[in-house]
Specification:
heterodimer, A: mainly alpha, 10 helices, B: alpha/beta, Rossmann fold, 2 domains, six-stranded mixed beta sheet, 16 helices
């Protein structure tokens, strides 16, 4: 069976694409390009088949927070404009820009995590020129991301069984999910770092399936780097 | 508890033996009292050591010291002396001395597929080792060859536990520490694991340290038993000298509920339920089951047989692809069925035990007075009525598990479902949970529990339903053979 293109790409290509996308999301200012980028990433996420329940939950959680974000920006706009209409028009645009930026970063992260096995990322982080301590720390963080998504979903289900209803206008309604998530992730971070030491993951310096740069890699790398020129200029 | 006199080793003997401790103590950072005190132990290579004791007695802290990982895994000060392979490791520890398998298998797996996971360990073997044949050997030993291409994320917890143990053994450590390795394993797999550990110990000289609550199993398997109580060694010697545990009290009922009741007015009824996870085959196939008032129904079966799926369907977290699930009460299934999950840390969030326990009745819109009454009743049922002002995070593991049970009992559910209620609990906590379940069923509620613990099933269940590969294969009374 032929593997999809995105899983055949070299790990460095995927990482470069991810970083370039993050750069565009973080530094881009115009709404239209951001909207196009967001739509493209959303399409890619679903096309690559990595939009599992955890990813969807995270996206929904972000969308649930949108009304509060809009209100916050309108309030900030009122401080500056001192008129309600000015505050609304400024606040809506800024809130949209902010939401798109966060959504793009979120989608790029989900996409990268979804199409890259944790071990591949760990192998990249445990090179001889990276100090073992830093490699272990970064590897823990990388291993942590997919587990955190799964744990968030599990905790949400548990609290749903206890009658939890998330309300976008009441951020404190998220506490029954956030507090156990934080506590359990602290414990998991500790256990994961211990296991990384015990299994001597940091001593593995080779990728389990090293792939070479192909024409697709070169093309995408070129496009990604070219797209950075306007930002750098 | 029989207190075996600890062997009084002279400090000069510390270099002999594989693991030797002399008056070892450990005080966690910021704590007033030590967690371990006066630990003097001597473990030879190839020994099979069982470590038992109530929750919070210091078993894991001791085991991490014996594995030379205390400096990595614990924050605090170790004193006395700890010698591993003739080297003083009291302060420095000894990375690479022991392999460790923790209770939660998910955090110790780093590969994408089963094969890749085991290969990851084999990559650290010397270059002259035939890695392919080693890979086949470990996969065969643990019955993982049938799932070698499966993604790790799609495996059940039981399979993940097997995989994590296989991956650790593939590193070929001299000492292997397993912290409650059977938590997610069915009985045959747990037996297989302990047989395998015994063989490795005999043939390869592997020293195995196992923390486990299942005393009968440990007594059969171990060559050396260490019992902990309040941070000290309460027993150290051959398991045959250790007093057998008191059996869990059987349910004290006047009479078992009539079987006709289960068909006449069931509190929960599943009819021809079929369910499949996306792309992972059928989890349940045409399952019919009912729970009547006063019944305690135990679901047993091997890993991946569909027990937890059935509970999630009963609760309403999943919807069946085919078939029908109904409740005896008019309330929605989400309210009528209570589900107690395994890990208390996944749900505790409030600042007091009372607040935590009252979360469900408040969400079910009971009036404030009734919320208070229900919460107090539920806390009293699990023996936590005097702890209502305490911060839940400061409770012991056993108390947290009882709090999660109370948090579900405080709602309006008529059927109580429990997923692996015995995991990680010592015998005192087990007796408390058994008494609570008996009390709940005596009040006319139904109980449906999924467990691997056959002793607990015999102690509390009025009916045992065996599942295998998503099918009900038997439905018997508690004294019948568990399939």
């Amino acid at each position: 069976m032929t593997r999809p293109l995105w899983t055949r790409l070299n790990l460095l290509t995927r990482l470069t694409l991810f970083l370039v996308l993050c750069l565009h999301a973080a530094l881009g200012h115009d709404v239209l390009p951001q909207l196009l980028l967001c739509s493209g990433l959303l399409l890619l996420l679903f096309a690559s088949g990595v939009a599992g329940p955890h990813a969807r939950l995270l996206l929904w959680a972000h969308l649930l927070g949108l009304p509060a974000t809009v209100l916050l920006f309108i309030a900030i706009g009122y401080e500056a404009a001192r008129s309600f209409s000015g505050a609304v028009s400024w606040g809506l645009v800024e809130a949209l820009r902010y939401a798109l930026r966060i959504e793009c970063l979120l989608l790029a992260n989900l996409l990268f995590i979804g199409i890259t096995a944790p071990l591949e990322i760990i192998s990249l982080l445990t090179r001889p020129w990276i100090p073992p301590g830093v490699g272990t720390l970064l590897s823990t963080a990388v291993r942590f991301l997919p587990l955190s998504l799964a744990e968030a979903r599990r905790i949400y289900d548990i609290q749903r069984c206890r009658g939890l209803r998330l309300r976008p206008w009441a951020p404190q309604s998220c506490l029954p999910v956030i507090v156990p998530l934080f506590v359990s992730q602290m414990c998991r971070a500790h256990d994961t770092s211990v296991m990384l030491v015990v299994r001597r993951i940091a001593t593995i310096t080779r990728s389990p399936s090293p792939s070479k740069f192909g024409p697709a890699d070169l093309l995408l790398l070129g496009l990604a780097l070219a797209s950075c020129i306007p930002i750098l200029l | 508890m029989v207190s075996h006199p600890q062997s009084a080793h002279h400090p000069l003997d510390e270099r002999s033996g594989l693991i030797r401790t002399w008056q070892l103590a450990f005080q966690p950072a910021g704590a007033d009292a030590p967690l371990l005190q006066d630990i003097s132990l001597h473990i030879e290579a190839g020994e099979r050591v069982g470590i038992i004791g109530p929750s919070g007695s210091g078993k894991t802290t001791l085991a991490l010291h014996l594995a030379g990982l205390h400096h990595v895994a614990l924050l605090g000060r170790s004193s006395g002396s700890l010698w591993l392979q003739g080297r003083d490791c009291t302060c420095s520890g000894s990375e690479g001395f022991a392999g460790v398998v923790l209770q939660n298998p998910e955090i110790q797996l780093f590969g994408e597929t089963v094969e890749e996971e085991v290969s990851l360990s084999l990559q650290q073997q010397p270059a002259d080792v035939d890695r392919q044949s080693e890979l086949r050997r470990w996969l065969d030993l643990f019955g993982l060859d049938t799932v070698r291409d499966r993604r790790v994320a799609t495996l059940s917890l039981g399979w993940k536990q097997r995989l994590s143990i296989a991956s650790m053994l593939a590193l070929e450590p001299k000492v292997l520490l397993l912290d409650e390795p059977t938590s997610y394993l069915d009985e045959p797999t747990a037996d297989l694991l302990f047989d395998l550990l015994a063989v490795q110990s005999k043939n390869a000289g592997l020293t195995v340290l196992v923390i486990e609550h299942d005393l009968p199993r440990l007594t059969r398997w171990a060559s050396h038993l260490v019992a902990m109580r309040r941070g000290r060694i309460a027993f150290d010697g051959p398991p045959t000298n250790y007093p057998p545990p008191q059996p869990l009290a059987p349910p004290s009922r006047v009479s078992e509920p009539p079987r006709s009741a289960s068909t006449a007015n069931p509190l929960l009824s599943l009819e021809g339920v079929t369910f499949a996870y996306n792309g992972h085959g059928t989890a349940l196939d045409n399952v019919s089951l009912s729970v009547a008032p006063g019944e305690i129904v135990a679901l047993v079966g091997p890993n991946g047989s569909g027990k937890s799926t059935l509970l999630n369907l009963a609760k309403g977290l999943l919807e069946p692809d085919q078939g029908r699930i109904s409740c005896g009460s008019a309330a929605p299934r989400m309210d009528a069925v209570g589900l107690v999950f395994q890990n208390p840390d996944s749900q505790i969030f409030a600042h007091s035990v009372f607040e935590e326990c009252s979360f469900l009745p408040r969400n079910q819109n009971f009036p404030p007075d009734e919320v208070t009454t229900r919460t107090r009743q539920a806390l009293s049922q699990v023996g936590l009525q005097s702890q209502d002002e305490r911060a839940p995070f400061s409770l012991s593991y056993g108390e947290k598990r009882r709090l999660t049970l109370a948090s579900t009992l405080s709602g309006r559910s008529t059927v109580l479902c429990l997923d692996e209620p015995t995991v990680g609990l010592d015998r005192d906590c087990l007796a408390q949970v058994a008494a609570t379940l008996n009390h709940v069923s005596a009040q006319g509620s139904g109980v449906l529990l999924a467990t691997h613990d056959h002793e607990f099933v015999r102690a509390v269940a009025t009916r045992v339903v065996s599942l295998r590969a998503g099918h009900v294969v038997s439905d018997t009374g508690p004294q019948g053979d568990i399939v």
